[in-house]
C-alpha cells in the first residue's frame, strides 16, 4: 500500500529525517513512537505532502507520488487527522466532517455521515453547532471523522487521542478496530498512550533523532536492547527527554 524509500526531510539547517524507509501493507496498522523531535510528525507530513523532501521517494498503491501535491494525495486515497485537531471553527460539525468528502457525490457523503454518526453519536447530536464551540476532545472526534469521511485507503493519525476523556478513548479504540477489520484501511499512527494501542498495532517503528532505531512486532520492539537503552533505560537515569512509549 505505502512504501517510503530512503526519505530525508530538512528544515533549514536541521535534518528531521535521515534516510527513513518504511512500508505499510494493506490493512496494516503501524505505530510511530519516539521522543519529542524524533521525526514522527515529519514522517507523516512527508507522506501526506505537507513537508518537502530533499531525498528519497514515496510510493502509494504502486505509484510514485513524490511530486504529487497534498490535495492530489488526498484524492488518491489518503486521509489525514492532524495533531491539534485544526477544525474549521465557524463551520458546523456536519460541514467540517463532510469537507473531507467534498469530491464525492451527495449519496456517498450521506452514507459516510450516517456511518460516522453511528460510531460517534456526538456528531449527530451537534451536527448544526459550530465546531469551534465544542470541547477539545469533541473537536478531535470531528477531525478524525473528517479524515475518514472519504473512506481512504490509508489513514494517517497524529496523536488522535490527545484531549479525549476515558469514554472517548474507548470509542476511538473501537472505531480503529472497526475500520481495521471491517474496512481493511491501512493506518500510520502517532500515539502517546501505548496502553490504548497495544492491541491495535501490527507493527511499531521507533524513531530516534530522525533515524529508524527499531522496527517490528510490538512485543519484539519493546524488548529491543537499543530501544531500552535509548528510551526506557535513559528514563530511569533521569533523562529529561519526553518519551512517547
Protein architecture, described:
With 245 residues, the chain is of the alpha/beta class. It has helices at residues 40-48, 70-76, 93-98, 106-119, 121-125, 136-148, 166-183, 194-197, 218-221, 225-236, and strands at 2-11, 14-24, 29-33, 55-60, 63-64, 78-81, 154-158, 186-190, 203-208, 211-216. Strands 6-7-8-3-9-10 form a 6-stranded mixed sheet, with helices on both faces. The protein is globular and about 50 Å long. The chain starts with a strand and ends in a 9-residue tail after the last helix.
Blueprint of the fold:
Elements: E1 2-11, E2 14-24, E3 29-33, H1 40-48, E4 55-60, E5 63-64, H2 70-76, E6 78-81, H3 93-98, H4 106-119, H5 121-125, H6 136-148, E7 154-158, H7 166-183, E8 186-190, H8 194-197, E9 203-208, E10 211-216, H9 218-221, H10 225-236
Parallel strand pairs: 3-8, 3-9, 6-7, 7-8
Antiparallel strand pairs: 1-2, 1-4, 4-5, 9-10
Brief descriptors of the model:
Rossmann fold, 245 residues, 10 strands, 6-stranded mixed beta sheet, alpha/beta, 2 domains, single chain, 4-stranded antiparallel beta sheet, disordered C terminus
Tell me the number of helical segments per DSSP (H or I, 4 or more residues long). 10
The average pLDDT is: 85
**Overall radius of gyration:** 18 Å
CATH topology of the largest domain: Rossmann fold
Known CATH architecture of the largest domain: 3-Layer(aba) Sandwich
Amino- and carboxy-terminal Cα gap: 26 Å
| Count of domain modules | 2
What is the name of the CATH class of the largest domain? Alpha Beta
Helix residue percentage: 25-40%
Give the name of the CATH superfamily of the largest domain: P-loop containing nucleotide triphosphate hydrolases
Series of secondary-structure elements, N-terminal to C-terminal? EEEHEEHEHHHHEHEHEEHH
Question: Uncertain spans, ≥5 residues at pLDDT below 50?
Answer: 233-245
- Overall structural class, as computed from helix and strand content, comes to alpha/beta
Instruction: Estimate what percentage of residues fall within beta strands.
Output: 15-25%
- Give the beta-strand count: 10
Largest sheet: 6 strands, mixed
Amino acid at each position: 500500500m505505502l512504501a517510503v524509500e530512503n526519505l530525508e526531510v530538512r528544515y533549514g539547517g536541521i535534518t528531521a529525517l535521515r534516510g527513513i524507509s518504511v512500508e505499510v501493507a494493506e490493512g496494516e496498522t503501524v505505530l510511530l513512537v519516539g521522543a519529542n523531535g524524533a521525526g514522527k510528525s515529519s514522517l507523516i507530513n512527508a507522506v501526506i505532502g505537507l513537508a518537502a523532501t530533499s531525498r528519497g521517494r514515496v510510493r502509494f498503491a504502486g505509484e510514485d507520488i513524490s511530486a504529487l501535491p497534498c490535495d492530489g494525495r488526498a484524492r488518491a486515497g489518503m486521509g489525514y487527522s492532524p495533531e491539534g485537531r485544526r477544525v474549521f471553527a465557524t463551520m458546523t460539525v456536519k460541514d467540517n466532517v463532510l469537507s473531507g468528502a467534498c469530491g464525492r457525490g451527495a449519496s456517498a457523503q450521506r452514507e459516510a455521515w450516517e456511518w460516522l454518526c453511528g460510531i460517534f453519536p456526538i456528531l449527530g447530536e451537534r451536527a448544526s453547532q459550530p465546531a469551534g464551540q465544542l470541547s477539545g476532545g469533541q473537536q478531535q472526534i470531528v477531525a478524525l471523522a473528517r479524515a475518514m469521511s472519504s473512506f481512504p485507503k490509508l489513514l494517517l493519525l497524529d496523536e488522535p487521542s490527545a484531549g479525549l476523556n476515558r469514554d472517548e478513548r474507548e470509542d476511538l479504540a473501537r472505531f480503529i478496530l472497526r475500520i481495521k477489520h471491517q474496512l481493511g484501511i491501512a493506518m500510520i499512527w502517532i500515539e502517546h498512550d501505548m496502553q490504548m494501542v497495544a492491541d491495535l498495532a501490527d507493527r511499531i517503528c521507533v524513531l530516534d533523532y530522525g533515524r529508524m532505531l527499531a522496527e517490528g512486532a510490538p512485543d519484539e520492539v519493546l524488548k529491543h536492547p537499543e530501544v531500552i537503552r535509548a528510551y526506557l533505560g535513559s528514563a530511569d537515569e533521569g533523562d529529561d527527554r519526553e518519551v512517547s512509549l
